[in-house]
Amino acid sequence: MENCIFCKIIKGEIPCYKVYENDMVLAFLDINPVNEGHVLVIPKKHHRDIFEIEEEYLCEVVKTAKKISLKMREYGIDGVNIFQANTEAGEQTVFHYHMHVIPRKKDDGINFSREMLRHLKKMDPDQFESMRKALEI
Amino acid sequence: MENCIFCKIIKGEIPCYKVYENDMVLAFLDINPVNEGHVLVIPKKHHRDIFEIEEEYLCEVVKTAKKISLKMREYGIDGVNIFQANTEAGEQTVFHYHMHVIPRKKDDGINFSREMLRHLKKMDPDQFESMRKALEI
A5-110: what CATH class? Predict the structure, then answer.
């Protein structure tokens, strides 16, 4: 897609620090790393977000995220977070589907749980049941 | 696995607000929701984390996360975050692989980016290249 920075990286028009590539996906270092070794995995075909991405690309992305996690562990990291943002309301900034693979070290100070706990919603059983019905597939 | 709360939910020994189930995965409301409708997707076979989960289960989990995201959008949410924690250092608290599907609303105040930006690491091209080589598959 024109004017998509990740499509330009795929085409080689913008350089990247590539760690893995196959026919369907590309994985490279995030140039704004949360921790050293922070990787992004993207499908080579442009999809905007999780609502749009085709299942075969989605599987290949997540299988690649697992491969990279294993490689990170071999390298010596202690844990991994997977993070993926969709739409502006969901804090997406580049509108080409991408999965963050963030290496974690013991006591690195990063605290996603704190951000989650800060927003915990109280719901009673009726509210849970009504939400369950609304989302049931 | 004995004493695994998610295995007990799968076996029906502990109740849950189920939104989707097939042979391989189960999806249910998180009882500590970051936003109303926060869902967890888990493999029915016990796997500890991303390092351990078999590829076919991983694909089924992420395809289910997509299905649920689409259902959430139908319901009226504005965005979705996917979050997944591995090992204690990576803030995992239940040691049965699980993927969070967190519905987002415009201006809901949740801010994962802030937590990420707070920890950005400065790296020069040599450091990037050395990390790239270390993680290359």
Answer: alpha beta
